[in-house]
């Protein structure tokens, strides 16, 4: 049934929209931009910040356009003198209780509050008085929480509650004492936070940001005794360019490698090579489990935020997890063993830096399970944003760089590894290898369209070697919870499950370039980045992990075969039940 259409006038323009449309969205249909701070489409529309107020003729006071529905004959003014003055007052009040150390804030230049203050010419604070003071929570390895920069827009709370269904944070207290906090005001390190970082992506200010570890990288690059290696995840190369004004989804692999080399890294390798090893081990593991009907469905283990979630919430399902380490951890282990041996380098001098789209990787790399011979597989994790800052600090004109190639002998990767960065990609890559292994043939069908796309849950049945395999790919922890409940209740009939903590997969990870709420309304950021990864795959000469020559060589010279004793020791791990809340 078609919705009734409503006619109204906004800023002297005739507008016709379906009944139930908000004034904010009605204005967008005719190109009128109403400013917002707390509004996030389909996530948070509580009308808390009051930045989107408008005048409606015949009514007293202002209307909050993000929640006010249109009415027939309504006449709306979005930029009258009184509206503009009211918005300046709202900004003035927000800034009066906001630490204004903009020059040293990680969000300076990409802060929605700062942008609005500039837009409305708020150059001085009229409302001076007491400011709330809060300790900075920087205990976790992944997230820093600085409530002194919070504007109580509740976007982080809505994201954690409504998108991820975790609820690690909420608004506590009332009035002037109101703040976004955790249970018992504990550190995020001591509550049920998964470090997915989606709160950071949706925060309009610098109240939430990643734990910056670039100083440690700089120190190692200056150390003449350190052999510093960078490895870069697939999702980084299709997002890094955005930090330098390039179009969303631009593939900047060559420039990224050139920048890292110019910064002084001894070697620059591709984490995609590690992803190919992950597929070799994961496909082997799946085939063995499938044949034995053992601990099915098997669930992928590449996303550390997801791993922390299942450890805290569904420990009884841990046997379903693949024992494979994530690609960058596998690669780190090989760099400190196979590569170190080949190059004659003392493993203790090798310092591996993983450039990741994910802040949960910072947590993952320091897990005790991620060690070999007393050494961590990976020594430091920096995000896409941190790498961009390092490039800028190096005075490198990124867009002017000539493309460079990853170093050998660990620089070769396949198209299958590239698609790890988007939801469904890990499963599709694993199915390519699994089908060839099970059939003993080099099959031409390598695209599994059923598990592609932006849907939060994608279910399919694929036939391999005459056997039907039920698969599902879920992204976002709310969707993961739905799948886990099915498995727990025995209502699921899956054999293979891929789960990514971040909605859309790694391309939308918590360490990726932050896009304002306005940009995300206008552009499908996930699709642009994901399409770029699929393009890399399509253009690759080799698109199956088991056909990667460097992978084949290392198995022959060092690992023997997937699932071997040495492969198990270096490339596999275990997981454990984890407390949601640390008791005092």
In short:
By secondary structure, this protein is of the alpha/beta class. The protein is built from 19 helices and 19 strands. A hairpin with a 6-residue loop joins β7 and β8 (179-181).
CATH class of the largest domain: Alpha Beta
Q: Kindly report the spatial arrangement of strands forming the biggest sheet.
A: 2-1-5-3-4
Instruction: Please count the beta strands (DSSP E, at least 2 residues each).
Output: 19
Total count of helical runs of at least 4 residues? 19
Q: Tell me about the largest β-sheet.
A: 5 strands, mixed
Please name the CATH architecture of the largest domain: 3-Layer(aba) Sandwich
Give the tally of structural domains. 3
Helix content: 25-40%
Distance between the termini: 57 Å
| Approximate strand percentage | 5-15%
CATH topology of the largest domain: Rossmann fold
Principal-axis shape: globular
C-alpha-based Rg, rounded: 25 Å
- Which blocks of ≥5 consecutive residues have pLDDT under 50? none
Describe the structure.
The chain has 19 helices and 19 strands. Helix 8 packs across helix 10 and helix 8 crosses helix 14. With 584 residues, the chain is of the alpha/beta class. The strands form six sheets. Strands 2-1-5-3-4 form a five-stranded mixed sheet. A four-stranded parallel sheet has the order 11-10-13-16, with helices on both faces. 49% of the residues are buried. The protein folds into three domains: 5-79, Roll (Ubiquitin-like (UB roll)); 126-210, 2-Layer Sandwich (Alpha-Beta Plaits); 214-571, Rossmann fold. It has helices at residues 23-28, 81-96, 112-119, 155-163, 198-202, 214-222, 253-263, 271-292, 304-313, 327-343, 360-365, 384-393, 415-418, 425-439, 477-489, 517-522, 525-539, 549-559, 565-571, and strands at 5-10, 13-18, 53-56, 63-64, 75-77, 143-145, 170-172, 179-181, 208-210, 227-232, 267-270, 298-299, 350-356, 371-372, 375-376, 380-383, 457-464, 467-475, 496-500. The chain is globular, with a radius of gyration of 25 Å. The longest helix is centred in the middle third of the chain and has 22 residues, at 271-292. A hairpin with a 6-residue loop joins strand 7 and strand 8. The model has no long low-confidence stretch (mean pLDDT 92).
């Amino acid at each position: 049934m078609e919705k009734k259409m409503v006619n109204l006038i906004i800023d002297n323009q005739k507008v016709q929209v379906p009944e139930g449309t908000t004034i904010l969205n009605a204005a967008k249909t005719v190109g009128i931009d109403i400013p917002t701070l707390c509004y996030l489409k389909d996530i948070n529309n509580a009308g808390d910040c009051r930045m989107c107020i408008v005048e409606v003729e015949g009514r007293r006071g202002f209307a909050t356009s993000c929640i006010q529905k249109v009415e027939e004959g309504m006449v709306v003014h979005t930029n009258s003198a009184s509206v503009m003055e009211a918005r300046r007052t709202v900004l003035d009040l927000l800034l009066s209780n906001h630490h204004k150390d903009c020059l040293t804030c990680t969000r300076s230049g990409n802060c929605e509050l700062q942008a609005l203050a500039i837009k409305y010419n708020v150059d001085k604070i009229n409302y001076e008085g007491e400011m709330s003071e809060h300790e900075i929570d920087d205990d976790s390895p992944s997230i820093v929480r600085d409530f002194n920069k919070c504007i109580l827009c509740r976007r982080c709370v809505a994201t954690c509650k409504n998108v991820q269904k975790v609820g690690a944070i909420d608004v506590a207290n009332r009035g002037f004492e109101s703040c976004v906090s955790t249970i018992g005001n504990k550190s995020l390190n001591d509550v049920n936070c998964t470090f997915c970082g989606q709160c950071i992506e949706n925060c309009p200010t610098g109240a939430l940001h990643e734990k910056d570890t670039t100083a440690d990288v700089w120190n190692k690059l200056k150390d003449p005794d350190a052999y510093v290696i960078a490895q870069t995840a697939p999702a980084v190369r299709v997002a890094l360019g955005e930090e330098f004004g390039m179009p969303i989804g631009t593939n900047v692999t060559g420039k990224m490698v050139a920048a890292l080399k110019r910064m002084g890294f001894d070697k620059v390798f591709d984490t995609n090579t590690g992803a190919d090893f992950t597929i070799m081990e994961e496909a082997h593991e799946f085939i063995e489990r499938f044949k034995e009907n053992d601990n099915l469905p098997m669930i992928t283990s590449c996303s550390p935020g997801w791993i922390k979630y299942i450890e805290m919430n569904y420990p009884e399902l841990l046997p379903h997890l693949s024992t494979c380490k994530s690609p960058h951890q596998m690669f780190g282990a090989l760099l400190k063993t196979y590569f170190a041996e080949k190059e004659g380098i003392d493993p203790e001098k090798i310092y591996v830096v993983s450039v990741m789209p994910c802040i949960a990787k910072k947590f993952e790399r320091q897990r005790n399970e991620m060690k070999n011979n007393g050494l961590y597989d990976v020594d430091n994790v920096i995000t896409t944003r941190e790498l961009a800052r390092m490039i800028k600090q190096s005075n490198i004109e990124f867009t002017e760089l000539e493309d460079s190639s990853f170093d050998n002998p660990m620089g070769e990767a396949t198209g299958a590894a590239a698609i790890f960065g988007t939801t469904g990609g890990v499963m599709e890559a694993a199915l390519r290898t699994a089908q060839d292994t099970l059939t003993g043939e080099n099959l031409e069908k390598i695209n599994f369209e059923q598990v592609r796309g932006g849907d939060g849950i994608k279910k399919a049945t694929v036939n391999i070697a005459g056997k039907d395999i039920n698969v599902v790919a879920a992204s976002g922890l709310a969707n993961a919870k739905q799948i886990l409940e099915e498995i727990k209740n025995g209502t699921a009939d899956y054999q293979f499950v891929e789960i990514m903590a971040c909605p859309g997969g790694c391309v939308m990870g918590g360490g990726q370039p932050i896009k304002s709420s306005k940009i995300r309304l206008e552009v499908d950021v996930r699709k642009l980045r994901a399409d770029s990864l699929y393009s890399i795959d399509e253009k690759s000469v080799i698109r199956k992990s088991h056909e990667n020559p460097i992978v084949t060589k290392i198995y022959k010279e060092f690992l023997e075969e997937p699932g071997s004793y040495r492969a198990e020791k270096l490339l596999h791990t275990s997981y454990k039940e984890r407390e949601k809340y640390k008791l005092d």
